[in-house]
Design goal:
single chain, 520 residues, 3-stranded antiparallel sheet, globular
C-alpha cells in the first residue's frame, strides 16, 4: 500500500549518464584546476570560466561529442551534480566566450596546472620525448593563420590542420609542454625554440629533475647546429640526423662482421635480434652573421650503429617492391614498341621517362631506347654496384647521443618508445567537428588546443595511477568501461528529489580504487 502511494507521488523519472565523471573530477581537484583557472580568468556571468572548461574536458574524456552537442550532453548527464558545477546553458556561445576569456592566458594556466601535477603525482621529468603531431579540423578556415594544409600524420591530406609540438615524459608519456605551429611547418625548424622553452620550464619546476634533462627527438630532428645548441644549454639528446649521405657513410664504415657479431640485450616486438656498436662522432657548427662565418663550435658525442633483423626484412621487401615497379614499366613499354605511336623513338623515350617519374627504383637501372623509328629496342639492366650499396644498408640505422651514460640498449629503447606518444595521444586529439565560424580567431584555436591537452594530461594521470597498481588502460577502454554507468533521478510531486547511481562493475571499482575515488 505504501509503495503504491509512493509510486503515485512520482512526477518524473530520468536516467542520467555518469560514466567516468567521478574519476575525472578527482584528478581535476588534485590539480587545483578550478582555482587556477578562476584566479587567472575571473568569472563574468552565471557560471565560472572553470566550469565551462571543465565541461569540455569531461565530455572529451567520457563520451566525445562535437562542441555543438555539448549542451545536450550536459542535459542528459549527471555533470552538474557529480561535478558540482553551475547549472547553466553550456551552448556554443558560452563555450566560445570561455575560449576567448582563457585564450590569452593558456600558457600561464597550463604551467601552474603542470607544476601541481608534477608535485601531486611525483612525476619524473628528466627525460622527455619531443615530437610534432597534427590535429585536423573539419570545415574551412580562411581567416586562420594557423590552420592550413600540410603533411598529415593522421592520413587526412585533404583536411586542414595545425601542427602541435609536444613534449611528454619518457617514462609515463605525461604531456609537459606544447606549442602550436602552422599546419605546413617543417619539423626541424621547431627544435631550437622548443629547446629554449624546455630549458626554461625545467628550471622553474617546483621539484627539479634528478638528472640532466634528456630530449629524445623524432626522426631527422638533429643537425650540427641543433646538436651544438643542446650542448650549450647542458641538455642531453638522443636522435637521428637529417644528413642521409653522412649517415650512410658512417654505416658503411662499420664492417658487417663486426656489427653482426655484437648482439644486444634487446628484443623488439617480433622477438628478433638486434646488434650494435658505438663509435665517436663530432658535431661541428660555424655561426654566421651578415653572410660572414663566425665562431666555430664542436660537440663530442657518440654514434650508435644498429642492425635489426626485422628492419632488414622490411627493407628487403620494400626494395624488391621498388625494383618490381620499375621492371613492370620496362616490360610494358617493351611490349608496346614499334606499334602505333611507340614506333617513334622520341615518343617512346618521353613515355618511358614519364612512367618512371616518381619511382625511386629507377635510379638502380641503366636503360636506353635503341634503334630507329619503327625498329626500336629497349635495353635495361640493373646498376649492380649501386644495388649492392643499397643492400649493404638494409636493417641498419644510426642513433646519436651526447649522453655517455646511455648504453646501446638504453638509447635504442628510448628512441623506439617515442612512437608511443603519438599512439597514446591519437584517441583524444580529434577530429573536432565545430562550425568554422566558431573558430574564426586563432586565439580560440589555441584555447581549444589547451582544452585538448588538459584532457590528455588528466587522462595520462589516470592511466599512470592505474599503472602504479598494475592496471593497464587506454583512452578507448577507459571510456568503454564507464559507458554503462548511469544514475536514476526521481522527482516527486511535492518537489522532493533523489538519485541513485547504478551498481559498479569490478573494472569500474578497480579504476576508482587506483585514484582513491569515493564511489558515487
Amino acid at each position: 500500500m505504501y509503495s503504491k502511494k509512493l509510486f503515485q507521488n512520482i512526477q518524473e523519472v530520468t536516467t542520467k549518464f555518469v560514466g567516468p565523471l567521478p574519476v575525472i573530477k578527482t584528478v581535476w581537484d588534485m590539480l587545483g584546476a578550478k582555482n587556477i583557472i578562476d584566479r587567472v580568468c575571473p568569472t563574468e556571468g552565471d557560471a565560472p570560466i572553470s566550469d565551462s572548461v571543465f565541461v569540455m574536458v569531461a565530455n572529451r574524456l567520457s563520451s566525445p561529442e562535437p562542441l555543438s552537442n555539448i549542451e545536450q550532453w550536459v542535459e542528459n548527464s549527471a555533470f552538474v551534480s557529480v561535478m558540482d558545477a553551475a547549472d547553466a546553458a553550456y551552448n556554443d556561445d558560452r563555450l566560445g566566450r570561455t575560449l576567448d576569456a582563457i585564450g590569452p592566458d593558456v600558457k600561464s594556466v597550463w604551467t601552474q596546472i603542470l607544476f601541481k601535477a608534477v608535485t601531486a603525482f611525483k612525476l619524473e621529468v628528466d627525460s622527455v620525448f619531443y615530437d610534432l603531431t597534427s590535429i585536423y579540423f573539419e570545415g574551412d578556415y580562411k581567416q586562420s593563420l594557423l590552420i592550413s594544409h600540410g603533411y598529415s600524420r593522421d592520413g587526412k591530406p585533404d583536411k586542414k590542420q595545425i601542427n602541435l609540438a609536444l613534449n611528454c615524459s619518457q617514462k609515463d608519456f605525461i604531456p609537459l609542454w606544447y606549442k602550436l605551429f602552422k599546419g605546413n611547418t617543417n619539423d626541424q625548424t621547431t627544435v631550437l625554440d622548443n629547446m629554449a622553452q624546455l630549458d626554461k620550464l625545467t628550471k622553474e619546476l617546483p621539484s627539479k629533475p634528478g638528472k640532466t634533462l634528456t630530449v629524445i627527438g623524432d626522426r631527422l630532428m638533429l643537425n650540427d647546429e641543433i646538436a651544438v645548441s643542446y650542448g650549450h644549454l647542458g641538455i642531453k639528446f638522443i636522435g637521428t640526423i637529417d644528413d642521409c649521405k653522412a649517415q650512410q657513410e658512417l654505416i658503411r664504415f662499420i664492417p658487417d662482421e663486426i656489427l653482426k657479431s655484437s648482439p644486444l640485450n634487446y628484443k623488439g616486438r617480433a622477438k628478433d635480434s638486434y646488434y650494435g656498436v658505438t663509435i665517436p662522432h663530432v658535431f661541428s657548427h660555424h655561426e654566421t652573421a651578415n653572410g660572414k662565418e663566425g665562431k666555430h663550435f664542436i660537440l663530442e658525442s657518440a654514434a650508435h650503429v644498429f642492425f635489426s633483423e626485422s628492419k632488414d626484412r622490411q627493407d628487403k621487401k620494400s626494395f624488391d617492391k621498388k625494383i618490381k615497379k620499375v621492371e613492370e614499366v620496362f616490360k610494358f613499354v617493351a611490349n608496346k614498341l614499334n606499334k602505333r605511336k611507340y614506333r617513334s623513338k622520341d615518343y617512346t623515350a618521353y613515355q618511358l621517362k614519364t612512367k618512371l617519374q616518381g619511382k625511386s627504383g629507377r635510379f638502380f637501372f641503366e636503360y636506353e631506347v635503341l634503334g630507329v623509328d619503327g625498329a626500336l629496342f629497349l635495353s635495361w639492366r640493373p646498376k649492380e654496384e649501386k644495388v649492392e650499396q643499397a643492400k649493404a644498408l638494409f636493417g641498419k640505422y644510426v642513433i646519436y647521443t651526447n649522453d655517455p651514460s646511455q648504453t646501446l640498449e638504453m638509447a635504442l629503447k628510448g628512441y623506439k618508445d617515442k612512437d608511443k606518444v603519438e599512439k597514446s595521444f591519437s584517441g583524444l586529439k580529434g577530429p573536432f567537428k565545430v562550425r568554422p565560424i566558431f573558430l574564426q580567431k586563432d586565439e580560440r584555436i589555441e584555447a581549444l588546443v589547451f582544452v585538448i591537452l588538459l584532457s590528455y594530461l588528466i587522462f595520462s594521470l589516470i592511466r599512470l595511477s592505474c599503472k602504479r597498481h598494475n592496471l593497464k588502460i587506454t583512452e578507448k577502454s577507459f571510456i568503454r568501461i564507464f559507458s554503462s554507468l548511469n544514475s536514476v533521478e526521481i522527482r516527486m510531486k511535492d518537489g522532493a528529489a533523489f538519485a541513485q547511481v547504478g551498481m559498479l562493475t569490478k573494472k569500474q571499482k578497480d579504476i576508482m580504487f587506483c585514484l582513491k575515488v569515493q564511489p558515487p
